[in-house]
Amino acid sequence: QVQLVESGGGLVQPGGSLTLSCVGSGFRLDSYAIGWFRQAPGKEREGVSCIKSRDGSTYYADSVKGRFTISNSKNMVYLHMSSLRPEDTGVYYCALDMSPPLGSDWYATWTGRYSPNYWGQGTQVTVSS
Question: Which residue(s) pair with 23 in the sheet?
């Protein structure tokens, strides 16, 4: 049974940093994409960042480029968030795509074309002074 468990959320001041962690279990695939979505109050869930297991390719939403960094190690995936803004507030979800598209569109799940196969339970991030 696949499980994704997030941790690391909390309250941080604008301009601050926070690192989210997600531990995955129950899957063993040659190629998958794993990463983060977020949902702000009153807004739809949006893809933030993901990483491809096979070669470490990464994707970032325009709103977080240059501020967020995704990385992975064995069964863990991390999201280091810096220069945080109030608009980064929301529930952050770890998500797994077990069969990402081939080629340059491998992150299509994070741009909304498909849905992830599995979700974590979410962790709250609040950016406020």
Answer: 5, 76
| Nearest of 54, 48, 99 to residue 72 by alpha carbon | 54
Examine the pLDDT at 85 and tell me if it is beyond 90.
Answer: yes
Range 39-65 burial, b when 16+ CB lie within 10 A, else e: eeeeeebbbbbbbbbeeeebbbbeebe
Tell me how far CA of residue 56 lies from CA of 33, 67, 78, 125, in angstroms: 9, 18, 13, 25
Cα–Cα distance, 83 to 26 (Å, whole number): 34
Structure tokens at 111: 């741009």
Is the per-residue pLDDT at 65 higher than 90?
A: yes
Q: Whole-angstrom Cα distance, residue 107 to residue 113?
A: 9
